[in-house]
Amino acid sequence: MVDSIFREYRPSDAERSDRSAGDRLRHRQKVREAIRENIADIIAEESIIGKDRDRVIKVPLRGVKEYRFVFGDNSGGASQGDGNTKPGQVVGKTGREGKGQGEDMAGDRPGVDYYETDVTLEELVEIMFEDLELPNLERRALREIETERASKRKGYRHVGIRVRLDKRRTARQRVMRKLASIRSAENRAGAGAADGEEEEERRFPFHQDDLRYKHIEVDVREESNAVVICIMDTSGSMDTMKKYLARSFFFLLYQFISTRYRNVEIVFIAHHTEAREVTEEEFFHKGESGGTFISSGYQKALEIIAERYHPSLWNVYAFHCSDGDNFDSDNPAALRAAEDLAEVCNLFGYGEIKPLGSRYYESSMLNIFRRLEAPNFHTVLIERKEDIWPSFKAFLAKDRVKESA
Amino acid sequence: MANYELQDLIDWDARIRDKVEEFGLDCYPQEFEICDHSGMLGYMAYSGMPSHYPHWSYGKSYEKLKTLYDHGVSGLPYEMVINANPAIAYLMRDNTLLLQILTMAHVYGHNDFFKNNFTYRTTRADLTVETFKAHALRVRRYTEDPSIGVDLVERVLDAAHALSWQCRRNLAIRKLSRDEQVARAIEAAQPRSDPFKKIHRPQEFREPEVHRVPLEPDEDLLLFIRDYNPFLAEWEKDLLTIVDEEAKYFIPMMETKIMNEGWASYWHKKIVESLNLEQGLHLEFIVRHNQVIRPIPGQINPYHLGFRIWEDLYRRYTDPTPEEIKRDGAPNKSGREKLFEAREVERDTSFIRRYLTEDLMREMDLFDYQARGGDLVVNKVSDPDGWRDVKETLIRNIGTNAIPVIKVEDADFGHNHTLYLKHYHDGRDLHLEYAEKTLAYLQRLWGRECVLETILQGKRSQLCYNERGFSIRALK
Predict the structure, then answer these.
(1) For chain A, what is the radius of gyration of the CA atoms?
(2) Which of B66, B108, B397, B472 to mutate to test the interface with A (most CBs of A within 10 A)?
């Protein structure tokens, strides 16, 4: 009779043997790489803008497909019917998995392998900023306020100050050394006499090497504050498309700042000929009409900064989106206000949104702002949604370090 | 475990093994390992192997299986058994007692099949576990080697995986060595003996091209690249060998999926029915058994198809209808003998061709379909006119027949070391996007241009991949 053995289930085995962990991690890395390669497309997708950070979004992936030689659509197949199949009957759609053999080892059909993966927005934002590859930004000291100082024990060292001497460990080291030296003396002497040993045993002083000091590290928590000031032209000429582009840009800016500072606030300023501070809802959805005084928006921003976000305590990021259709008479005032604003901000940007084609017949502020020479001021031109990511990158490259107050 | 102990399983196993012996099944020693669902998912991701080399694709497959399982899209198999000596099977600890009994009986069916079917002779079941372990060790060593590292190993493995099924299908046919091929070419070039030599025009002598590489079209792409790309490092060659060995280990399973599942289902039914289960267990058995072998409209369930053919074959040899006797003659051996003969000498292709009868096809309502526009439209059904075509289509889509046949024709095409391959077109075009990406992998391993001759929508074409990328040339 044939033999058999049973190996019983052992929970401890099952817990330990997560054998696919390494391969899963590697796969996850591949997925991230694939996301990073497509990041510009993903960001351009409407769906992620304005979503909650914990929200899970689906990202189509192409990078981690496993390709083989397979047959295409004209290959046909055979299958089983329900009892009265007739020639000419339609039994399914092409390009769909599930026809044919089902669980086949080879994976004989191109499947739904461009699969979607779930990432949280948080993760995506992280990947986005990895993609930025702005090492100088990463290393930059932020303006921080030390909030907490706590001492934390962190291991033991051979050197240190006398008060931190750990007597117990030091004594233990000495005992260890003593035992070791006796043993090695015995080895050396072999079977020979151990005459002088007794005398030596009386004294075995501490040695420099025995000393052990507690190591203490100061744990500094830093509080850092940032405020993002979104200024948008809500005059009649800003249509939905323009607002959408502006919104995407603000979204990225906010997400980015949030990853870098502990405490981030956001201020929305809408302006036409005069400016108001508004809620997010109003900011994006309420259209107004009338002309445009860009300077009004900047003045309002300056006011708010002076009132609530003093630059010595806050990192200020301001960004203004407009279609550049300003009243000519306001241009000098706008330029002056922009200069003032650049003075108090870490980074101040102006994005001119001109959906493709419209730039030829509309006036532009880009020419005016060219005269402004602050190093932390940057203008971008956004013509379509694909421009958002590159211009965002260009914008951040200008971020400057302000000396700490 | 639910309402039973390990000892219960051991007792039932003893009773099952009695039956296994009584029915004349011939098995390897059997090892059962009880695992939980996450262990099972792990084994599934690594094709059941206790030890397997690491690659991200297994992580992917684990995640996919787990997602499907967690969302309840697919359950887990009741059992998983690998072809090894001793055969190793995993039993899910959360299964009911009846499921375990059914599964164990099923496992012995597979075990017998692994041991006796001719396609598995090449798999070296005695060494299966050790071989996979050795592969794992070698791959890990390359990964940890500071001069190689995981990225380079993956570069080769990714490409090798893409080509792994492009190998010989019927491994029972021995591959001729290069020397033997040369001998054969010279032999073929000899003038044929001709009794009427005097009156015939003298035969033209064609010098055999014995220096050509390959001499005969070669289907083992990975091995061919390993042997003829002089720029590969030893470790790269070793990786290609490992992937090829693994693929060849699994080829018999692809080649006998229907027979094997049918055989195991046939015997689990026989065994469990002979155990005289108490009523409650027996009812559960009927339910579970039918879940396993039920037909799935719109698909081919290999359990169902295989089971039906085996049952039908047995019936035709024990209790044939008068028409069948008239058509096939009286059976010359017992049903049992016939079954055991077929399980030894057939593979799915021949099994279906020989034993899937027109009547059975009609009973099962098998049909074939073609894509027309965006729809899949039924082409032929199993009526007197169509059943042969349906059967042909079915055979073309099972096991390795569902993989395009691609062979190396020339390793020095155009005298610039271009690798020239030919797709043996059988009416089915290649999926172009997949072909492009796979060619890229091929080029990565070969190091120089690769050209694949195929037919695209009726036109002979060459798909080329070189350092400038992918292009398609039409041939006249």
Answers:
(1) 34
(2) B397
Q: Are B83 and B131 in contact (CB under 8 A)?
A: no
The per-residue pLDDT for A399 is 56
Q: Which of B100, B101, B104, B84 is nearest to B92 (CA)?
A: B100
What pLDDT score does A182 carry? 84
Clarify whether residues A358 and A212 are in a common domain: no
Confidence of residue B204 (pLDDT cuts 50, 70, 90): confident
Number of domains observed in the structure of chain A: 3
Token representation of residue A57: 């979004």
Contact: A76, B369; criterion CB under 8 Å: yes
Residue A52 lies in a domain: yes
Please tell me whether residues A367 and A228 are part of one structural domain: yes
Contact call for B297 and A80, based on CB within 8 A: yes
The residues, ordered by sequence, that sit 6+ positions from B169 with a Cβ below 8 Å of its Cβ are: B219, B251, B255, B400
Q: Do A127 and A171 share a domain, yes or no?
A: no
Domain boundaries, chain B: 6-117+256-284, 129-166+219-254, 301-400, 404-474
Tens-place pLDDT, residues B357-375: 999 999 999 999 988 877 8
Looking at residue A320, which CATH number applies to its domain?
3.40.50.410
A295 and A202 within one domain: no
The predicted structure's pLDDT at residue A100: 36
Query: Is A69 within 8 Å of B406 when comparing Cβ atoms?
Result: yes
Query: Would you say residue A133 has pLDDT above 60?
Result: no
Residues of chain A positioned with their CB less than 8 A from the CB of B397: 75, 77-78, 100-101, 108
* A321 touches A252 (CB < 8 A): no
Q: What's the Rg (C-alpha) of chain B? A: 26
ipTM for the whole complex: 0.91
List the single residue in B54, B381, B393 with the smallest CB-CB distance to A85.
B381
CA distance B281 to chain A (A): 22
At A254-287, the pLDDT tens digits run 877 777 777 788 888 888 888 888 887 777 766 6
